[in-house]
# Entry
Amino acid sequence: MLKKTFLLISVLGLCMALAPNNHRVVRTEEAFVFFMEDSVRVAVNLAYAENDEPDHYQSHVETPVCKDSLCYLVEIDLFWDLLGNFKDYRLPPEAPLTKFDHEKFDAADHVKLKKILANKTSLLRDYDMKSLVDNSVKRTSAVVDATTGATSTTIKDEVVGGALYTTHRLWHIVNGEAARKILQHTEGFFDDSLLVQMLRSEDYHYQYYALTKIPIDATKKYLPELMHLVAIGDEYVPFFAVEKLPAHIWKEKDYQLKLVGMIGNLNFEMQNEIINRLKGIPLTPESVAELQNVSPKLTDQQKVKVKSLQKANQ
Amino acid sequence: MEAKRRDFLKTAGLSSGAFFTSPLTLFGKSPVEQARSAAKEVYQVKKYDTDLLVAGGGMAGVCAAISAARNGAKVILIQDRSRLGGNGSSEIRMHICGATALKGQPWRETGIMEELFLTEAAENPQRSFEIWDFIMYDKVYSEPNITLLLDTVLYETEVGGGEIKKIRAICSQTESIYEIKAKYYADCTGDATMAAQAGADFMRGREAKSRWGESLAVDVADNKSMGNSLLFMSSKHDRPMPYTPPVWAKKYSKKDFIHRNIRGLEYGYWWLELGGLMDIIQDGQELRHDLLTILFGVWDYIKNSGNYPEAENMALAWVGMIPGKRESRRVVGDYIMKQDDIQNAKLFPDRVAYGGWPLDDHPPEGMSSTDMVPYISIPLKAPYSIPFRSLYSKSIKNLLMAGRNVSVSHVALSSTRVMATCATMGQAVGTGVAYCVNNGTMLTQLGNDASHLSRLQQQLLRQDQSMLGVKNEDDKDLAKKATVKASAETKAGVAANVLDGTNRDIMDGNSHQWQAEMKGGEPWLKISWNKPVKISNVQLTFDTGSHRRLMLSGDDGVYNSQERGPQPETVADYIIEAQTKNGSQVLAKVENNYLRRVENLFEPVEVESIRIKVQRTQGDELARIFEVRCYLEEVRGV
# Structure
């Protein structure tokens, strides 16, 4: 779906109209500008979607990628989420990414590059260019009168083959100062409405980040969102959301029943989390009955725990 | 509690070399207190005079003692426990990591470490940590030049004229005070206890990026360190094994394990780690208890969260009581190794050992912040060399170091700290001391003089030390003047390789070994001289699969993925025959060898040629020999 959208966009030349997440961009404003170590200027814009909600950051970057006399200009549009996580890139049709000897990136190269750029802990973070090149192996260019060192074998999975310098350069633009400044910039305008927007989003990065931003004494205010995340949050988010539920709601009839009712639809570990948290809490007859309803969906070991909950509340 | 300890650290100052009233307390009453009160009447004072005193019987200390002893130095090894092996012993049970972290590369440590690895793999099929202790004990006890003093705690180091004059140590079980004078002292304590007592310059905490331009360093220097870990083992029973944790155990839920992988249940986890925010030496008592609260809390989570149904029949079988330490003091040497030396694999002129573990730093918070990733590990491209200048003190003339307390930055330590690397340093230090004793050389002279170093490197290489970029140039090796022929050879393994000066795969496209098909019978190598030579020692180096990991581990995944027992590539049975003017003569007949380096010793004999006939391998279809050396002088076998 996403790929089709991109294709359509490049064909129509409407690069700015839709964000990588398919949201319509209504306006952009300059968020900040910074300079790479070699003075390349990078301006990052904040894009707003409908309802004037901040949606993502983007930047049109033009940077030379060089090694000795092998050099070319990379022109690329980069997209980050509001927390500085890389989301996507787009290229002008007239300036594709190329590898050693100007061979164009193929589809697999793009998939690999996007995966690398999305990995904040890639070893590209901790290796400078000179350390990545194996100078004991030289490659000679047929196009340019030059040679370059080959990619060291141990790091070849971390770079697009034949495009070591491009990969390294782009990774540092995407995940270096820009990522840090984006987070800072977002924190500068972070408010309750953005908090709620993130809690309600479908992106677990946003969900988790927002959870950490809920003040300890204000969890009650976000109860509907928290209950929602307990029930359907992605990845490890439900385990943090459940932690944020105020203690008293476990004893309140309606909430208790909702939590018990969720058990049947939760994943195995989250089921255990709820069952364990019910231990020692007085359960209403409705909750006890609901436990009976969800019981067929449980393992034998879980059933033993549920039985002991029911017994304790007879 | 932790906040208080942090405050304490703040006031402690960094790397000042100054310490507090009793810096060396281990557990309970300090040894010096014990010594003062008890020595008056009951304790006997025993005096020793020796070439080398090794303090600390972990992997570094064991290898330092063995190598010095084998090279002719008299050694006293003191160890504060009843068992050798330190972090690798049955008391802590960390498996011995090293350069095999460079996956697909052939850099498993050789030398004494390899001898221990291979012996354990062959002689400990029962996978017992206690037996592993005794394999080390046997190696140490079998050296006539070593006096091993177990349960013996160093408590005093006397210094005069910039060098250590003597040390005192106490053994409460035997009511003994040992007063030991040595020409050289090797601090293999891990905590650099002896160096601290001697007033040697040392570093502690984490240096800032700006100090040495290390990109992986912290922005602002602090007194924090990597933490300690406590391990456990569990076993499976034929019935459910309920578990009730102590009331003081911590409580954990799934959210605490998003960055911490509970993979197997049979062996604990390195990330059961804590202490980087405390004084990791002085706060040891509290720290151990805090680690136990974590350990039992994690086991409670495994047993009772419901998330590990497979844990139902499992029960704790062993719980460590000695936290394994990663970091404390680092003694300043003539050279301090840094991030770049490791990441860019600098080849030092005074290289005497190597490492290959990633730059694997652990945030000091450990399990006190389960929302943080417990490690940042930067894989290396290649093994890096370790200079001799980082293995002796800059400020105390006769003090050396091996292990985690050597002269490295915090960032460099994140790689050099693992035990197989520490072991290679131990062998370098022990051999270096023997060289100094035999040649009347000062440590700093040895570290900075190319001709001395070249001789030390040749000595180390001959003894199969883990070395990078050093070829056999030993003038005493009579095989260098010989020619070689073989009954058969492969394209990748020509006979001439056994005399090419390189005794292992170094990833240069050459196997550096002779190979011959075993199915053709008993392939042989013949080494011939133009005119007869007198020899008394044929040293052979075999292939033991150095691209594979090989260590005792409680982790099923780590253990079961290894080739256990004798390594299949190894030549098992062979005969060495000599052609003399009086006809042929058998010089050695060996069965069931599993070692990499073997010295075959015999009465001196004048030979025209020798023939090494391979009768059996430990399973491989090819006979494989890396190197043949021949010597006249007598060298003790291993």
User: Anything to note?
Assistant: Chain A is about 40% helix and 20% strand.
